[in-house]
UniProtKB/TrEMBL annotation, chains A, B:
Record keywords: Hydrolase, Membrane, Transmembrane, Transmembrane helix
PANTHER family the UniProt entry points to: ADP-RIBOSE PYROPHOSPHATASE, SLR1690 PROTEIN
Residue ranges of the TM segments: 20-43
Organism lineage string: Bacteria, Bacillati, Actinomycetota, Actinomycetes, Micrococcales
Record-linked CDD domains: NUDIX_NadM_like
Source species, domain of life: Bacteria
Name recorded for this polypeptide: 8-oxo-dGTP diphosphatase
Organism: Pseudarthrobacter equi
GO molecular-function term, one example from the UniProt record: hydrolase activity
Pfam families recorded: NUDIX (PF00293), WHD_NrtR (PF21906)
Domain called Nudix hydrolase: residue spans: 23-166
DNA sequence: TAAATAGTGTCTGTAAGACAGTATAAA
DNA sequence: TTTATACTGTCTTACAGACACTATTTA
């Protein structure tokens, strides 16, 4: 491969107009658990289309950043979340490219799943970014059941549903649920996360038996504030849980 | 929402130059099984960059089609595969958007997983499309082990590896493996697919016991061409296999 | 002491892995 | 008849689900 003429030429082989181009956005499905309920961060749209409707936070992918980098940047810009102090799990979900999904123009969106660590009792504060009239937390299962707030703008209801599905599925065979908790957590906290995401109760005793081998015991104890024995504090170690936990069959 | 002035205005609220744009391609990880070995369809690049190297088939997403539609179109254009006669499974894999992944310009690629049905003894014919010097089938596990052909162009080795990972994982809890076989197949054929993808032998008796409840018996029998009892012909019914099959732990 | 939570033990049913044994058809 | 493949049965081990029970702390 020593044809340096061709090497020089190929850099000019593409010119604008030779190929179709699209606007690329990174949309965010941001999850956090509070009071045993899974919540998603949503913004209320301040402009058309879908003015006044709830939508996923997101924004354009810059010319010199990857979609993942844009997702991280948008997370702080659009929701005001401080990434420096907060451990954050971020992974790509899927890409939505239906030609008519945005009535203004061709917009392709790379959706991302974001998990925020909380202690289960308070949600991180979110604030609206540009173009948004407000930002807040909404219960996910209620939203998807057609309850509070109704359907989201664009195809964001579908994206939210697929984000939940991805998280619920991944929790069967990984310890990713721990990313919704502080570095150290109790088994009850972890079980609460599972119940919040799966929207189903789990037997505490069996959960302990199945989960313990995949966690690391710090030796420390949580102070028992509600009465009862103090729970051991764990950290997540393994990436994969084998055999997988089985989610209760939902009818 | 009855402010029709704003309704009229928003269609012009975006102009070229207001937002970054990217070229969008659909790349294909095309799998088929032959002789108990998982193969991928690859093209040899006819032009720079990576001239002469193997790459995934793919091409630009048109201005009026979704990435999935483009993937289906490229499948026939770039590999010459006739989609009319062939049952094809196509699903989105992931999107690759690293700014430097194509040295010519900003190209974001939506990768797709394609499963072609074969009888296990012959691979569908593939032919090169535009810009390709040739197209052929290559054994996947050998390629990824660094064997035949070396690494692929661009980040295509990574995409191929993640495509394999997706397929192998999905085969644990769905009957998607049947999409690599004709409409009707024997349990031995299906087991061969599992062994080809997982690159590990499976006990025939136990495989039958675990898989049969998720398949439908047609009542017909395959003719025994190699000696031995004629195997029953099944069709795939269930989408989910519960509890999941456990893949042999690989060391 | 009463109440609440954490964690363990036990029992039963089911399924996995290993593998022997039987049935069916081609050479 | 030999051989090769398809399929079933059996045995052991292991884990899931259900749930009782003990231990540990706060009020």
């Amino acid at each position: 491969m020593n044809d340096s003429n061709a090497e020089r030429d190929y850099l000019e082989s593409y010119r604008p107009g030779d190929y179709p181009s699209v606007a690329l956005t990174a949309d965010l499905v941001v999850f956090a658990v509070n009071g045993g309920v899974l919540h998603a961060a949503l913004v209320r749209r301040g402009s058309h289309p879908f003015r006044g409707r709830l939508a996923l936070p997101g924004g354009f992918v810059g010319p010199r950043e990857s979609a993942e980098a844009a997702a991280g940047r948008e997370l702080s810009e659009e929701t005001g979340l401080d990434l420096g102090t907060l451990p954050v799990h971020l992974e790509q979900l899927a890409t939505y490219s239906d030609p008519g999904r945005d009535p203004r123009m061709r917009v392709v969106s790379v959706a991302h799943l974001v998990l925020l660590a909380t202690d289960g009792a308070t949600l991180p504060a979110v604030s609206a970014g540009t173009d948004a009239a407000g930002a807040d937390w909404y219960p996910v299962h209620d939203m998807l059941a057609g309850g509070a707030g109704g359907s989201l703008a664009f195809d964001h209801s579908q994206i939210l549903a697929e984000g939940l599905q991805r998280l619920a599925g991944k929790m069967e065979y990984t310890t990713v649920a721990a990313r919704l908790l502080p570095e150290e957590f109790t088994l009850t906290q972890l079980r609460t996360v599972y119940e919040a995401v799966w929207n189903a109760p789990l037997a505490a005793g069996n959960f302990t038996r199945k989960m313990t081998p995949h966690l690391e015991d710090t030796g420390r104890k949580a102070r028992a504030s509600t009465g009862g024995a103090p729970a051991a504090l764990f950290t997540a170690t393994d990436r994969y849980v084998h055999p997988p936990l089985s989610r209760p069959r939902q009818e």
